[in-house]
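dude i think i finally got it to work??
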Amino acid sequence: MQKRNIFISSVQSEFSEERKALSSYISADPLLGKFFEPFLFEQLPAIDQRADELYLNEIAHCDIYLGLFGKAYGSGKQKDFSPTEQEFDEATKLHKTRLIFLTNDSPEQRDARQNKLIAKAQEVVVRRKFNHVEELKSAVYASLVRYLEEQEIIRTSPFDASFHPKAGLEDIDTDKLQSFVKLAQLKRGFPLPETASAEQILTHLNLYDSGRLTHAALLLFGKAPQRYFINSEVRCASFAGYSVQKPIPSYKVFKGNLFELVDQALEFALNKLDYRIETRAEQVSIPGSYEIPMAVVAEAIVNAIAHRDYTSNASVQVMVFRDRLEILNPGALPIGWTTEKLKQLHNSVPANPLIAQPLYLAGYIERMGTGTTDILEKCLSAGLQEPQFIQTEEFRTILYRAGKEQAGEQVGEQVGEQVGEQVKVLLLITNDEMSVLELMTALNLKGRRNFLQHYLYPALEAALMERTQPDAPKSPKQKYRLTTKGMAVKARLIKQT
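look at this
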């Protein structure tokens, strides 16, 4: 089997030892060494060719671009791009799989041009942080194994196809299974009759084998799915303003099988959106429409439930704000994919294929692989602001409401001028979800009271940051993240650096 080539890119003076250690680790590992061949320019013999040309040529021949981004920008002049940025741009142009690993430094510790490079990379690829070389090795190992799985070079059983060790056919709701068959016949011409046994139907759907039920069977047709997978519930909430703040006007936790979860979450969201009644000049019935098309809301909710990571302890969340609807799920895009790719025609790579297929057969998914492009097209056709797809530690879809003041760039510009310097620095160093200790460490602060009084509390009061567990503010597992408004302010601050 031909090995995949990995181009390791970084500022040489900053990561000389890490590059060598990483190359040796990949080559020596029994699994990675079988499938990958790392490339370091230090290993090349002397050659009569310009170094920058040689490196760019090597990227053309590699399969994976692996970038290590730290404090330094590189040897590029003030108006030029550094070799590291040139290599990243070349990998992007050639559509190479890009894996970016960042040192856990604050923006203030980095070269200003390096911050801009990181911001550019963040727009198109998912990146991971590391503190030391052992943590880097672990993160690289996980990313490369995932690459092998998604390229089907190696195969491991996905969660939804795994068999549950205790559940049996008695845990399946046969009435709901028969209702599915009736609906699937109507929508997709499902071949089995309603009178078929549960064993026959589940076997046909690849959900049952040799007396064993898959996880997907329990999630789709179980009598009590949360008995086995408590995290499969969906949490829905509505807020009066732009961020997660108490009091919460409406909060629901829905349980049931996946079809019921979709229906309940959709009903909750639609009940919070404005509904416009039109005239019946050309129809007997009175037509109307939701401010966000119903099909868009349904698609986003189905995507979150179908493609989430069911091994995570987190749940799908549906949150309605004054200006937007956000749907979050604990999941990740296929490796090498970007949020920009979701806006273009792309292949269907479901995270849970055995879950996705019955949802498709029942008409909950209209066309495999077109969900996000449909969301984009329908929002724009309805005159709405372009929806956002954001990948961090979770996947977030943001649908903007019609005719509402947006807590986006304009609000970010106004608030950015008003907040203090301490809050601005806090926004710049906040990535994903971070604890108080992690935030203080990133800021190099030791006084907790000073941090809370001058940094965190003002950011919370300005709705620039929010708690991950708003119902338990003193929880030892409490973390903090940027709100949509905070993200807008941070983006503006980065542009100003």
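The first helix runs from residue 12 to 28.
im so relieved honestly
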